[in-house]
Amino acid sequence: MEKVTRLASERGVVIFTKSSCCLCYAVKILFQELGVNPTVHEIDKDTEGREMEKAIARLGCSAPIPVVYIGGKLVGSTNEVMSLHLSGSLIPLLKPYSATLS
């Protein structure tokens, strides 16, 4: 759990993904189109990936992957990110981490 917490707080926008996950890809593209360059950790390519996935579940994320952190705080998985985006609440969260959002 310590590794997940540390990685999540090292950068403004962090996404934990798996390389073959289509929802992970969709979330990464959404952030890039909003002018944010997230730090992406592909846990299936990490030797501690299984432990990281278990830690993410213990930290309170309902779906294991993708998992998004903004400003070191757990936002959630695809459903939470898309709900925030559709309600207009995602962009204000991302403003501090984007050169194009104003």
From TrEMBL:
Keywords: Cytoplasm, Redox-active center. Transmembrane segments: none annotated. It comes from the Eukaryota. PANTHER family: GLUTAREDOXIN. The gene is GRXS9_2. SUPFAM superfamilies: Thioredoxin-like. Residues 13-75 form the Glutaredoxin domain. This is Monothiol glutaredoxin-S9. It is found in: Cytoplasm. The lineage of its organism: Eukaryota, Viridiplantae, Streptophyta, Embryophyta, Tracheophyta. Belongs to the glutaredoxin family. CC-type subfamily. Its main location: cytoplasm. InterPro entries: GlrX-like_pln_2, Glutaredoxin, Thioredoxin-like_sf.
